[in-house]
Amino acid sequence: MSTEAKILEKSHDRPASIDNPRSPRMKSRSNFELYAWLFMRFSGLALIVLVLGHLFIMLMLDDGVHRINFAFVAGRWSSPFWQVWDLSMLWLAQLHGGNGLRTVIADYSRKDSTRFWLTTLLVVSMILIMALGTYVIFTFDPNITAS
Asked: Can you give the pTM of this predicted structure?
């Protein structure tokens, strides 16, 4: 038997695939990780547009940062367009960053209990920040008077 035939014969003795060192500990039938990966790519693209637009408007137009004050924010948030723009930035940034941190927690926490509590703390903090930010954007009152 030739050397090539022996090599080909031995290659069939190997397992079908070798697990990646960063592969999940338990095989899952859901596509959650695929969707999380896709979300990171699409939310990153959307955040680039939202953040660069935000920075351009805040820093480049008119007097730039010198015009930003309470009246500017009040005028901006009186428009539903800017409320949705800022809300989209807040939600996408929180979900994008939280998803990335969830991946870091899954990769580097050794104990299941540590992973559970860190992920729980992450989810609770994300929910609180998104809820508080949403509340502020939609209930902002430009007619505040000093008491």
From this structure: 0.74
Write down all domains in the chain, each with its CATH number in brackets: 34-139 (1.20.1300.10)
Q: pLDDT for 54-113, tens place per residue?
A: 999 888 887 888 888 888 888 889 999 999 999 999 999 999 999 999 999 999 999 999
| Rounded Cα distance, 123 and 95, in Å | 10
Task: Give the type of residue at 2.
Answer: S
**How many other β-carbons are positioned within 10 Å of the β-carbon of residue 77?**
18
Q: What CA–CA distance (Å, rounded) separates 57 from 52?
A: 9
Rounded Cα distance, 46 and 92, in Å: 8
Residue 1 is encoded by which pair of tokens? 């038997």
d(CA 61, CA 82): 16
pLDDT tens-digit readout, 128-146: 999 999 999 999 888 877 6
HSE toward the beta carbon, residue 24, CA cutoff 13 A: 11
The beta-carbon contacts of 16-25 under 8 Å, at least 24 apart in sequence, are 22/107, 24/106
